[in-house]
Specification:
alpha/beta, 10 helices, 8 strands
Length: 317
């Protein structure tokens, strides 16, 4: 365990990422169970559209947090449903800030936007921001089981990208509001109280700023890989991207390491290749702590198996 931090587990937000098929869900679920067993009220969140968190925990999950066991809750974000709610929310806001004559046209465009590229991504991000705001007030820890690397890197980059975009929108709206006030003063009309559009933009700007700081100050990204060529290369690229973005990297988790059972030509060949890749991992990622998790004889199908893996994750940093 990491010393000098609440509960001995370091930062409160933990992300498990990496190439598809390397075991992110298993390790994220095992780590969440480890935190829960230490009396840390933990929320396990799946942001992967191809959810399998419920499968690994052997329970049915939804878009709302469900209690899985003592101190452990889990949720599978439904980006499509969240996108629909997101559009409906924008529609409601539009009713307060758009004239009745223009409103039908605005709503028509919003309906078209429901299936446009980027809408689900925006909705996912809004939900992501909502969830991290629950920690530590409602949950002591949040563990994110993320989508394959490219999708996750995009999600992590959104706070900075959207902060800049909203900041620009705020400045534009302030200019327009200033001109509107000047024209109304010239016409001798009373100044209305507040600007709902500007207030909404400022609230979004503050949310995005807060999310960005939480990611920089209170999140650890654990990269999962297996001793094979493509995951090693993807891990190297991801480390570079995350380091450039200022994201704190934790232990590299080398999953599915084959045990030393040197029987048969096939196994000897596989183990020889694995030994080469493990050596390469140690050499190329020498600046990072690594932890090897051995391949079990059978698929992970029970929480007892997850607890066995969790026991090996204790030293995570």
């Amino acid at each position: 365990m990491t010393e000098g931090s609440p509960g001995g587990f370091g930062r409160r937000l933990a992300f498990f990422g990496g190439k598809g098929g390397v075991g992110k869900t298993t390790l994220a679920a095992a780590y969440a169970m480890l935190l829960a067993s230490c009396k840390e009220k933990t929320l396990l969140v799946s942001t992967d559209p191809a959810h399998s968190t419920g499968d690994i925990l052997g329970t049915r999950l939804s878009g709302r947090p469900e209690k899985v066991e003592e101190n452990l809750f889990a949720v599978e974000i439904d980006a499509s449903a969240d996108a629909a709610r997101y559009i409906e929310g924008v529609k409601e806001d539009s009713k307060k800030s758009v004239s009745p004559e223009v409103l039908p046209t605005v709503e028509k465009h919003l309906d078209l936007a429901r299936t446009s590229p980027g809408t689900e991504e925006a909705a996912l991000f809004e939900r992501f921001v909502d969830l991290i705001a629950l920690c530590p007030e409602e949950y002591d820890r949040i563990v994110f089981d993320t989508a394959p690397t490219g999708h996750t890197l995009r999600l992590l980059a959104l706070p900075a990208l959207l902060s800049a975009w909203v900041e620009g929108m705020v400045r534009q709206r302030e200019k327009v509001a200033g001109m509107e006030r000047m024209l109304k003063n010239l016409a001798g009309r009373d100044e209305p109280a507040g600007d709902p559009v500007l207030e909404r933009l400022r609230r979004k700007r503050d949310r995005f700023h807060h999310a960005r700081h939480r990611l920089m100050d209170d999140a650890t990204f654990y990269l999962v890989l297996i001793p094979e060529r493509l995951p090693i290369e993807e891990t190297a690229r991801t480390i570079e991207t995350l380091s450039t973005g200022g994201v704190h990297l934790g232990t590299l988790l080398v999953n599915r390491v084959l045990p030393e059972i040197n029987e048969g030509e096939f196994m000897r060949s596989r183990l020889a290749q694995q030994s080469e890749y493990l050596g390469e991992i140690k050499r190329r990622f020498a600046a990072h702590r690594t932890l090897e998790i051995h391949q079990g004889a059978r698929d992970i199908t029970s929480r007892d198996q997850l607890r066995d893996i969790a026991a090996r994750l204790g030293p995570l940093a």
